[in-house]
Structure formats: structure tokens, C-alpha cells
Amino acid sequence: MSGHSKWATIKRKKGAMDARRGQLFTKLAREIQFAARQGADPNFNFRLRLAIEKAKAENMPKENIERAIRRGAGLDSDAAQLEEVAYEGYGPSGVALFMQVVTDNRNRTVSEIRRILSRAGGSLGEAGSVAWLFDNKGYIVVSMEGRDPEKAFELALDAGAEDVQFGNSTAEIYTAPEDLQLVRQAFEDARYKIESAELSMIPKTVVSLDPAETLRVMNLIETLEDHEDVVKVYSNLDITEEALAQLA
What we know:
The chain is 45% helix and 23% strand. It has nine helices and ten strands. It has helices spanning 3-14, 18-35, 46-57, 62-72, 106-119, 149-159, 180-189, 211-226, 241-247, and strands at 83-90, 96-103, 123-124, 134-143, 163-166, 170-175, 194-203, 207-208, 230-235, 237-238. The strands form three sheets. It has a four-stranded antiparallel beta sheet with strand order 3-1-2-9. Strands 5-6-4-7 form a four-stranded antiparallel beta sheet, with helices on one face. Strands 8-10 form a two-stranded parallel sheet. Helix 2 (18-35) packs antiparallel against helix 3 and helix 2 packs parallel to helix 4 (62-72). The relative contact order is 0.16.
């Protein structure tokens, strides 16, 4: 299983603290609101559908989801003016960081992100400084409990997937961004449990560090993702099992 998935898995195991629940819902609402600008009907707006499903997976109340859709679609007069921004930078030991942000105040957000990076021994980079280290891909994780890996592999390739990697109980499926929905639908039709499906930035190569330095970078990533405006942080850090055990 890739570091991308292992990091997501360990965070799920740690669980979301109640004190962060409201902040999490705020972040999810912003994702929904921004996606709804392209249309309020998730049947015709795949990005909105992904955002809604992500919110439901976190048990976000239905009324919160519906309110975010209305605001994003311009149906509520008090809707904040949001913009989507990508920031690039470096963590300790030169680990590349690609940060996706939705904000109503770009100046405030970039100042706060720069401060978080600086305190952790990182730095904010120029646009394009690390983006070239990542590929924009569709990324799907499905449960493999009771499933035949060979059949899953054939299903993925027949549906248009580019690559499949198998872990202990899951399969990670990589697609071109435009094929994400088709491949996901193929696995849904075959009654696989979809654990997650998203557009993701996948590192072309990874950086391996010792466990202590790995934890230092992981803590920085977690601090960044705790920021209200930060939707997702991608890195090219190779997360070892030893580091994950220490974090857990």
C-alpha cells in the first residue's frame, strides 16, 4: 500500500477528535460550496458528488450539506466569495508539499501557511516549484475482503484504469482524471465496497527519511491540514511502516 493511502489510513484509525468536528465540517462545507459553483445537481456535477460523499462519510448533517450546496450555487444571499488556490512548498529535509486551499481571504491564508511552514523548518515556494513532481490522477481505494485480486485487476484495466496496487485488504486504483467516474462506476456495479474516490496528486518519485524525520514531516502535514482553509496536502514522502507504528 502506498504512503498516500497509509497516511490516510492511520489518520482514520486515530479518529477525529470532537473538538475538531466543527472545523472538519467547515472545511467540508467549503469544498461542497466551491464545487456547487459548477452546478447544484450532483448527478451532473461529479466534483460535487465526490464532495458530498466525502461529507457523508464523515457524518456531516444533511442540512449542512444542503446549505453548502445552496450557498455555492448562489441561492443564498450571504454566500462568501471563495476561491481555490494551490500553494507549493517544502517541509523538513526538502520534502515537497502541494497544498490545495479554498479561502475567502487569500492574503490571510498564505500568511498563515507561510508561518506554519517556517515554524516547522519548511518554506513556501513559488508557483510551479514542486507541482512538476506530481501527476494529477484519479485515485480509488476499494475493499478486497473476500475478493479475487486477479478479477479486480482485470476489472480495473477493462474499465480504463492505468494501474492497480494491492495491499493487505484493499486495492488502490489509479486512473486518468477524466476516467475516475467510469472506473469507480465499474467497481460499484461489481458490488465492491468503495472506501474512497477522489482526484489526487500522486508523487512521481518519493523521498525516504529516517523515522524521526518522517514523523516531523507528518506532524507538519497534519498541522497544515488542521488549518480551516486547507483542503488537502500532498507530499512525496515515503511513509515507512516503522514511522506509522510510532505515530499510532
